[in-house]
Every structure is written in structure tokens, then in C-alpha cells.
Design goal:
The structure is a homodimer. By secondary structure, chain A is α/β, with parallel strands linked by helices. Chain A contains 11 helices and 10 strands. In chain A, the strands form 2 sheets. Chain A has a 6-stranded parallel β-sheet. In chain A, α6 links the parallel β5 (103-108) and β6 (130-134). At the A-B interface, α6 and α11 of A face α6 and α11 of B.
């Protein structure tokens, strides 16, 4: 039973919870909660360490005190189960769904892990084939994983270093989502052959390079005084149009 | 220049920032940031107190030190402007938009202020006529106001005590959003005469009373393993269908 937050395993867990850099350096990520840990196990992620309070009886898990669980928990009332898992080599989108009517959302430098998680959850629910991420998006951020309800552990996710180059090489039609009135609207698009919709950073939108690399720009017509939709709402509407 | 966080005005501001109950009792709410304070002033909200650091030169504002601004700020890098405003008598949806093709979203007991704000922002951007709130929704929560980008200060918002009774009396067609396969889908609906779409609590969905009070139940067809969309994503898709 670990009852000290100074225990090296607990300190590692806290580091992986808090630091994107630690997650990269160790090749591990932190999960909180029974459901997410089970999702990871079911989807073939390798557990490096499972931690739980006496409330759980999990083979191979190291037991921790309630006070350690409180410190480790990122939620208001931690359930008392945590896992450290090895990164999966991000499951690649195979070329076939990209060729044959694949429906994919690509994210450029999304800042807010809650948005990333929400978009992954919506993408899975609507039946998209995968997610492409680039820039600062960290799919192993605990907030992203939680907001995704595990979708980030199940959806095919590809991380690309150079999104513009990837878009230029992509054989599917590519659409840059922009808040620009002259862009085409979803009703003017035929998505039956599949498509990639590209969503930009919350504050700055898409880079000029990403917009130029796409076949067309797409917009959601707006009527009110709000200047733009938030990234997760825009993504939800465009993914819905893509999939229906 | 106020330089102590023990100053009664600063203590009141912090209370209004943190407590829904304090906001109700004082009939005031707390705003952070230049843009939101200007939105409130432009939309006729009465400022009880404006607070700013020396970075701003605002007539009538009380100056505060940088350290007080840091304490008061809810964001990582506070701009240094805050306002306490009187609640507006929540602007009523007049009966006319409800009669003549009005498009309205109603929220039952939404828990997460970020969701409430995101839904308001999307509603305004897509051109909905108003928002109906009930249960625990607090439109004066600083996180809701911030996530709405001020839309909650501009959109007509009606708070109702008994949502089911309001829905039953409503002359527009009413649709309960539910994750139930047998419900009708957006493509089966004709929204040209206007409609009210009702979104439920994040964890529990809509109450049986609210569902029963609606003319029909509507659902977003789902394909993936995710059991449901989050409230803001479901609302975005349904409001988009309502308005296009």
C-alpha cells in the first residue's frame, strides 16, 4: 500500500498527468477512472502501472491510500483508480479509407484539450474513419482523454509533422474550415466520395499554409453577432454534414 | 488604488465570481476582461462597479493593483479589467417570435457552465431567436459568460421555473433531443414553421416530464461506440439543422 505522495511511482504518475513533455519523454500517459482504464486495456494499450484504492480489486494493481488518490485525482471526487500506459504507436489511417470514401477530420494546433476530446467523441459517435492531428495537439492529455470518453483510445489517430504536406499529398478532397463568407457552404458540397475537413486553432484559425494546401475552403454561414463558432461546435456541424 | 484583497469591494467581487448563490442574493454578476465588460455596457447592463489596473483608463473605474488583479482573475493572464453588473431582468422572448417561425433552444438543468456558454455562442452565430433555461443553468456564471463570448449578454434568454409546463403551453413545435434510435431524425423534420429543441443535462439527459411535454423526440443517428454526443455538440448539430 502506497501512502506517501513522495513515492517515486506516485511522483511519476503526477508528472505524466501534468506535463506533456514528461508524457513524450517517458512514452507513457496517465489515465484516471475505472472506465477509461478498462477502455485502454480493451484496446490493447500496455499498462505500465495500475494504481487503485481498496475500493477496487484489480489483479496486478498497486494499492494506494485514499489520500494519495485524492492528490492524484484530477476530478472533484476521484474514483480511486489510475493507470500509466505506454503510448500506442498512433494507429495509422490506412491508405484504403483515405482512398475509398474515407471521412476524416484533421486538427491543426488545437490548444484546448477539452476541445480535442470533444471533437474525438463527436467524430466517433458520427462514424468518422479517423482523426489527423498536428502541431500542439496532445492526444494523451488527461483532459482530452476524459472529454473524449475514451474515443481517443479507439479512433484511428494519425499525428503528422507537416500538415500542409500531408494535405497536399492526400487523395481525398480536402476542405479548410474558415470563417469567410465567400467560402463554399456544406450544402454546396458533395461528400459522398469522402473528404478531409480541416479545423484550425481556437484563437488563430487555420494557417495560410494549411488553407492553401486544401482543395477548397468551407464555411458555416453565420447570422448573429458572434464572429465565429468555437472549434468543437464548428467541427461537430461539419462532421455531421460529412457523415449524413 | 485598492491594493488589498481584504477590501470589501474586492471581497464582494470574488464572491460574485465564485458563488451562484451570492450572484442571486446580490442580484449582481462578475465579468472579467475588457471585451466582456464593453459587451455588457453596450447591451444596457448597469455597472455597479468597474475595477481596472493602471493599464486601463476607464472613466468611473476604481483602480486596483496588479496583485489584486491577479487574485481576482479567473484566467491564466488576467487583462486587469473587471466589472460587477446588475442582473438584467432576463430579456423575455416576446410571444411573436414564438408564434411566427421562431427558432429557440431550451436547456434543462445543464450542469457545465462551459457547455451553456458554448451553446449560447453557437445559437447566436447560427441566428437562433433565443434561449430558454431551466433548472440549475446559471447564465451569470463567469465561465458561461466567457465561453459564450458575450452571446449570453446579447441573446434573448428566458428563465422558466417549470420547463414541462412551458413546453406544453408553447405554440411552436417542440422536440426533445434524446439518444434513442426510434426517435425521428433531423432529416425527417420540417423546421420551416420554427421549433423549440430541448437539450438535457449532461449526465442524465432530459427528464421524462420534459420528454412527455414535447410534441416529438428527435435524435442524431450514431454509428460509433460512443454512447452519446456531449450536450454542446448535440445542440450545435440540432441548431444547425433548425436554422439552415
Amino acid at each position: 500500500m502506497i501512502s506517501s505522495t513522495q513515492n517515486p511511482q506516485i511522483k511519476l504518475a503526477a508528472k505524466l498527468r501534468d506535463s506533456s513533455r514528461a508524457r513524450r519523454e517517458h512514452g507513457l500517459f496517465f489515465l484516471e477512472g475505472y472506465r477509461l482504464c478498462m477502455d485502454a486495456l480493451e484496446n490493447g494499450y500496455t499498462p505500465e502501472l495500475l494504481l487503485c484504492t481498496d475500493k477496487f480489486d484489480l489483479p496486478g494493481a498497486v494499492h494506494i491510500s485514499e489520500s494519495v488518490a485524492q492528490k492524484l485525482g484530477d476530478t472533484v471526487t476521484p474514483q480511486g483508480m489510475f493507470g500509466l500506459f505506454a503510448h500506442s504507436p498512433l494507429s495509422s489511417l490506412t491508405t484504403s479509407p483515405l482512398k475509398e470514401g474515407g471521412k476524416v477530420v484533421a486538427l491543426e494546433n488545437l490548444q484546448d484539450p477539452a476541445n480535442l476530446g470533444a471533437i474525438a467523441r463527436t467524430a466517433e459517435a458520427l462514424g468518422l474513419h479517423g482523426l489527423v492531428i498536428s502541431g500542439g495537439c496532445d492526444v494523451y492529455h488527461p483532459k482530452a482523454l476524459r472529454a473524449s470518453m475514451g474515443a481517443l483510445l479507439r479512433l484511428p489517430v494519425t499525428a503528422v509533422d507537416n500538415l500542409s504536406a500531408w494535405l497536399q499529398a492526400c487523395t481525398l478532397p480536402t476542405y479548410a474550415a474558415v470563417p469567410v463568407e465567400s467560402a463554399i457552404t456544406p450544402s454546396e458540397c458533395d461528400f459522398s466520395a469522402g473528404a478531409v475537413v480541416v479545423i484550425g486553432n481556437e484563437g488563430n484559425g487555420l494557417s495560410q499554409e494549411a488553407i492553401a494546401a486544401c482543395d477548397a475552403s468551407i464555411t458555416i454561414p453565420m447570422r448573429g453577432r458572434a464572429e465565429s463558432l468555437n472549434a468543437a461546435a464548428a467541427a461537430a456541424i461539419l462532421m455531421w454534414e460529412l457523415c449524413k
